[in-house]
Design goal:
Beta-Lactamase, 7-stranded mixed β-sheet, alpha+beta, 3 domains, Heat Shock Protein 90, 14 strands
């Protein structure tokens, strides 16, 4: 529990990464939703407080997603909200009487105008350690009756919110994936269907020679097969059921990916006192969809952090051959059994290993990693010597080879 002001400020790099993560959830400036409102009401009743809120802290403002009281405001500046302070700690923030605060981090006049005398807030924490908002309660009088159990329940409500955000985001991505498939299907089939219609009209209006009829029939058959192929492609993509089907491949400097990786997971590594060592060839360039492979690397490092113990070392080792780069994530964590290795990339598989700090795991990440890497023409596999002997996850990706310049 953090009382008043005990947390260190977020560094500019961490703050930029935190805000980027918040924006990925597409929750800012959205209307009230029943599931979030229910959590806010539960928090209010748990503390028998004047008001309960769910807030999200943007770069320069605090957005009120849910509120149990009628208010004409949907946002405040960060200095007008104690939630900006609450996200600086992993544990709940408890302020018994705001009138006792002495800090230029708060606009005390604004707090009193909002009748906020008491405040308790639990940070909403993403799986990679970013604190993006709070579940909080306020009261119009000072409180000294708050129990540890109440604060623990407030934390549990914040866990419910992040699970709701993840589910909400997955649903939006699925809808977009299907919408994208529909648009591409219509676009791809428009030309062959137009051709079929045109050839049918020609055959119906004119007396054609046998050779001409045969030629047009062949063209109709070709166009029909094209429609069939496009439909098969859509069905195959639907089986994979993931937004990442359509790849935008381009040359990407691998060191740029690892720099983003370090910035994204700096908080998670620091929280468990873990060290990340990266060994990579200078200037290595891959030919990949940058966003998709960044997701792959994020997922593998996130797993290494989750399943490694405090003070552990995680190594990212890259080796290059003529056409492919081999990337290894090596940890000193809980390891895997032979049975685990057989199903580790299977969707929703239940493994014997458990995250060392009881972090969340939905069983989907590694199946998506496998799909994305294989779409790039690469492979994934895992190795472990057994329980408590660590694990290594490997993937191969195509290297970029610039075409030699030639003159006619």
């Amino acid at each position: 529990m953090k009382n008043k002001k005990q947390a260190e400020h977020l560094s500019p790099v961490n703050e930029a990464s935190r805000v980027k993560k918040l924006h990925r959830y597409e929750i800012l400036d959205t209307p009230p939703e029943a599931s979030f409102d229910t959590v806010a009401r539960l928090a209010q009743r748990l503390f028998v407080a004047h008001a309960g809120f769910i807030t999200f802290v943007d770069a320069d403002r605090v957005f009120l997603k849910s509120s149990t009281i009628n208010s004409r405001y949907r946002e405040f500046t960060r200095i007008e909200s104690l939630c900006s302070i609450a996200i600086e700690s992993e544990r709940p923030t408890l302020i018994l009487d705001t009138r006792q605060l002495e800090s230029d981090e708060y606009d005390l006049e604004a707090l009193l105008e909002q009748e906020i005398i008491f405040y308790a807030g639990a940070p909403i924490i993403t799986s990679d350690g970013h604190r993006i908002g709070t579940v909080c309660v306020t009261d119009t009088k000072p409180r000294n009756d708050i129990t540890a159990e109440q604060l623990e329940m407030l934390e549990l409500l914040s866990f419910i919110v992040i699970e709701k955000l993840e589910t909400r985001l997955a649903g939006r991505r699925t809808i977009r994936a299907y919408d994208d498939r529909l648009h591409r299907m219509v676009h791809d089939m428009k030309n062959p269907i137009t051709s079929i219609s045109m050839y049918a009209q020609i055959m119906g209006r004119k007396m054609l020679a046998v050779e001409r009829v045969s030629e047009i029939s062949n063209k109709i058959e070709t166009a029909a097969k094209s429609v069939e192929q496009h439909l098969n492609n859509v069905l195959n993509e639907a089986k994979i059921d993931n937004e990442g089907i359509y790849l935008v491949e381009q040359p990407v400097l691998f060191s740029d990916l690892t720099e983003t990786l370090k910035n994204t997971f700096e908080l998670s590594l620091n929280n468990k006192k873990q060290k990340l060592h990266i060994i990579q060839p200078a200037g290595l360039t891959l030919y990949i969809d940058r966003e998709r492979i960044q997701d792959v690397l994020d997922n593998l490092l996130s797993n290494a952090i989750k399943y490694s113990h405090r003070d552990a070392e995680i190594r990212l080792i890259v080796e290059s051959s003529e056409n492919m780069a081999t990337i290894e994530f090596r940890d000193q964590g809980v390891g895997m059994t032979e049975e685990d290795l057989q199903k580790v990339f299977v969707r929703f598989a239940r493994l014997s290993s458990v995250p060392t700090a009881h972090e969340r795991s939905n069983g989907l990440g590694l199946s998506i990693v496998k799909m994305l890497v294989e779409l790039h023409g690469g492979q994934v596999w895992a190795r472990s010597k057994g329980p408590d002997k660590g694990s290594s996850f490997f993937l191969t990706l195509p290297m970029y080879k610039a075409m030699p310049f030639s003159t006619p």
